[in-house]
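Spend some time on this chain, tokens included, and walk me through the fold:

. . .
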Amino acid sequence: MKGRVCQNYLVTRHSFPYSKSTKFGLFLLISPISRTIIVVFLALVTAAGIGAVLWKSGKLETQLLEPASTASLVPHKAIYSVALYSTRNTSQISNIGGQMFYAIRKSCEGWITQNRFNLVYEYPDSPAMRLLSDFSNVESADGETLQFITRRRRDGELFEELRGEALQKDKRVVFSMPEGEAQDIPAQAIFPIAHTKSVIDAAKSGKKIVSSVLFDGSDINGAVEINTIIAGQATPTEKSAYIREEFKESPLIKGNAWKLRMAFFPMADEDSPQSDYEMTALLYENGVISHMIIDYDDFSIEQKLMALEPLEADQCGGGANAGSRTE
């Protein structure tokens, strides 16, 4: 599994700073926390016991996902603890800790999602670093349009900001920041909410392997290919293992849930047979994720659900400008 310079949805994508000692020495790469978590939240993930490496679509059954879906997502907000889960001998990180806030709201125009990460990275031979990452998306109800804002701050200083809009009909993304930047997106690419719904649909229908291409606006590198293994429906014992006592009776976690394993491949590096990173997650049929582990080359991160509340649907106000609320 290769390191990626790079963002939770099922997946949204996460990004963590990680060391790539074999290629870059002690140079620390800052990965968009959203690509892994916004693509983890809105993109998703498997239970232990399914192979470590998921190969690209040529070696897995390929199924292109379409925006149309019968899955019913529930507006909610959640807080997750983020902590270092394991390290390998080559890791240059001694600890990672913090929180991730996630919210999904229904507006008249579509879906509004927000991810906010506040993480501290500790290193054995250099000062600790705080990384704040904010991701806001507005995805139209028909899956045709995605507006996005991404901001990342390192020790309080803004070092990356992206704003733009992607249109399915044009297969094109146009950035307002950086101004003048534009990219084509793959013909088969879909947006985060459409991707989450499609994975839930696949799980409900009994499919075991799904391959898709996701664009979420979380970083300048564009779309990623995601191979997902659906490892089966979680048992009541497996579900309760990741639910805190205070909200075990919440209707948000009463439905069916599936164990997922996801592998992420950059579309810009189509010749590579190995994933940038992989994720394991427990995904409920309403879009709630109760637990997640993100595996990089040198270390793994665990996200645990700490707080969960339902949100009311928007009464047709705000909508498309909601993304600008993230400051």
Summary: Residues 192-204 form the longest helix (13 residues).
